[in-house]
Fold this sequence. Notes:
The chain is mainly alpha-helical. It has helices at 9-23, 28-50, 58-89, 91-110; strands spanning 4-5, 55-56. It has one domain. It has four helices and two strands, in the order βααβαα.
Amino acid sequence: xxxxxxxxxxxxxxxxxxxxxxxxxCGLPGVVFGLIGWNNSRKAYALLEQNPGExxxxxxxxxxxxxxxxxxxxxxxxxxxxxxxIYSVGxxxxxxxxxxxxxxxxxSTRN
Length: 111
């Protein structure tokens, strides 16, 4: 009898990788994708425990769980840094600092 692919294992891996990539952007997408990936890996492990000999692909579920946790941690850290920046200088000044840093970067590429 041929083993079936473990459901939710591949999507867990994809969402885990997406969580790491998007956590570096602004944090929130990384947290969301991390939670989805972690939940999918839990579903995959539950199916594997019910029928251990029927499925293959435990490695994808394990890697998806690890990458999802890393994405969750990175996303939470980025959100914390954004929140602490806003709290320390205020919303208006925070936005002005971001605009100034982008403008400096834009000016340096033009020269």
